[in-house]
Amino acid sequence: MQEIWSNIVLFSPRLLEGTLITIQLTAISLIFSLIIGLAVALGKITHNKTINRICNFYISIVRGTPLLVQLLYVYFVFPDIGISLTAFQAAIVALSINESAYLAETFRAGIKSIPKGQMEAAQAIGMDYSLAMRRIILPQAIRNVIPAIGNSAIVLIKNSSLAAVITVTELMHNGNLLAASTYQNIQIFTMVAIVYWVLHYPLSLFVDYLEKRGAAHHVTSNQH
Amino acid sequence: MLQVTSINKSFHGKEVIKGIDLSIQKGEVVVIIGPSGSGKSTFLRMMNALEFPTEGDVLLEGESILYRTVGNKKVPRKEKELSKFRAEVGMVFQGFHLFAHKTVLENIIEGPMRVRKVSKETAILEAERLLQKVGLADKRDQYPHALSGGQQQRIAIARALAMKPKILLFDEPTSALDPELVGEVLLVMKELANEGMTMAVVTHEMGFAREVGDRIIFIDQGVIVQDEPAHLFFHINNNNDRIKRFLNTISRNVV
Ligand SMILES: Nc1ncnc2c1ncn2[C@@H]1O[C@H](COP(=O)(O)OP(=O)(O)OP(=O)(O)O)[C@@H](O)[C@H]1O
Ligand SMILES: [Mg+2]
Given CB atoms, is A139 within the 8 Å cutoff of chain B? Predict the structure, then answer.
């Protein structure tokens, strides 16, 4: 027991450093993936066939290849074409691109779920497509997909652990190093798992709350 | 005011509107009736370019809302130009389509502020005046889902009026309402007509047509079958078979 405690004290600083990096990776990638995802979703529903095709191709490539491959690709292949990134930057790029493809589908579904009449009513008062999108459709669509975005954030936290393989000093990587030098596998990997669980938990509560509230809201708005 | 010239519309090769001409004068109330699927909505929606005709043109005060003349060629207008004309032509839908995430007041000031670039203060003053007019001043800060259908439709009319349109289009504005809520919406429309608003109204409300309509247009299978002043329509045209049958069905449904 004594030993377990002293080990926890011993390992904690390294794991906490890693946790901070994990949080940064997740938060920054989430922001980028939201921006890219929204742009790709809009590209998918626009009437321009070429843009549709490009966006579908992007989604297909990203969803059809493993995240691990994407990470290694960005880290090792991008320098060959003149883009050299630090491990941290490469992880951000790969995670953002990966998650953006899933978020694009989320946003697209959210936009499609808004009744056609909303766009027509906006156009009938003289709004053009992009103004109607910004002022009328997207605010409603985004509100509807916030729970789904929360779920994406949870996936992103866990996916960020793969950045360990390209030497980003996040939680998983630091845990690995500690384990390799101390052989305290059980304790270290248990601690790592617990930290991931703790990170995901508030998000998970938040998503549950929103889904409950969303369901209640839907019932009332369907009543008329 | 608004002119439709030999207009045609096909959906996927199926002809829905087959050569319609119509001219609406300033201050006129034109009521459009006809069986389900005859093309009334499609026709009305072409008057504000929500639907683009396959052939023909729509003129607002003599100017084409659909085409621009470049040299001597007609070029379809860009989205931004279409929007400019749509701002001048108000539309009220069967399903109200109030902006669900905005309060009643926000619904009404959205167009004036974002499209007309009116200041917020001015827009709110005007919105409050319109709310008074449709009898819903106390609903200012409510969300649409908290209102009855009749109230929502009156707000939708206020939203359209806030743009100070040259003409108002109504597509079956009372068809989605419970019978006891129809009257309050028709009353607002009647008031507008009396104030001289130019209106084109698709409706099955024959009482309204008779009382408020200056002209009745009967559409069937994409063509105008009759176009008569209201007082003549209900007398003379009862000898047209199709119209007779239609009027019979309607009155049976109402009773
Ligand atoms: N976007 C569309 N795509 C394909 N067909 C359409 C479309 N809109 C309308 N139609 C068809 O055009 C015809 C006329 O439809 P429209 O809605 O104009 O009739 P309506 O007279 O308004 O009928 P109702 O009284 O039921 O509202 C119908 O056969 C309809 O199926
Ligand atoms: Mg219709």
Answer: yes
The residue written with tokens 């200012």 in the block is B140
Residues of A with Cβ-Cβ distance to B65 under 8 angstroms: none
| Residues whose CB is less than 8 angstroms from the CB of residue A201 and which lie 6 or more positions away in sequence, other chains included | none
Lookup: tokens for B31? 């009521």
Q: Return the residue of B nearest to A136 by Cα.
A: B99
Q: Which residue has the tokens 């069967």?
A: B94
Which fold, A2-223?
Answer: MetI-like fold (1.10.3720)
Residue A72, CA distances (Å) to A78, A90, A162, A165, B254 in order: 9, 9, 10, 8, 71
Q: Give the residue ranges of DSSP H helices in A113-170.
A: 116-124, 129-132, 138-159
Q: Which residues make beta-bridge pairs with B201?
A: B31, B170
Contact B214, B228 (CB under 8 A): no
Q: Give the Cα-Cα-Cα angle B177, B182, B187 (nearest 5 degrees).
A: 145
Task: Output the pTM of the full model.
Answer: 0.88
Task: Report CA-CA distances (Å) from A190 to A11, A12, B124, B210.
Answer: 12, 12, 60, 81
The two structure tokens encoding residue A121: 């009513």
Q: Quick: pLDDT tens for A61-80.
A: 999 999 999 999 999 999 99
The pLDDT > 70 percentage for chain B reads 96
CB B127 within 8 A of CB B162: yes
Q: Is B52 in the pocket of ligand 1 (CB under 6 A)?
A: no
Residue A51, token pair as written in the block: 């843009």
Instruction: Identify the DSSP state of B71.
Output: T
In this structure, which residues have their CB less than 5 angstroms from ion ligand 2? Answer: B 41
A111 touches chain B (CB under 8 A): no
Contact between chains at A135 and B110 (C-beta distance less than 8 A): yes
Best mutation site among B41, B51, B246 for ligand 1 pocket (most ligand atoms within 8 Å of CB) = B41
At residue A22 the predicted structure's pLDDT band, cuts being 50, 70 and 90, is very high
Per-residue tokens: B237: 């045209």
The 10 Å Cβ neighbour count of residue A164 is: 22
Q: Are B230 and B31 in contact (CB under 8 A)?
A: yes
pLDDT at B44 over 50: yes
Sequence spans of domains, chain A: 2-223
Q: What is the ipTM of this complex?
A: 0.91
Please name the residues in contact with B157: beta carbons below 8 A apart, sequence gap of 6 or more: B92, B134, B168, B173, B185, B188, B189, B192
**Average pLDDT score over chain A:** 91
Q: Are B189 and B201 in contact (CB under 8 A)?
A: yes
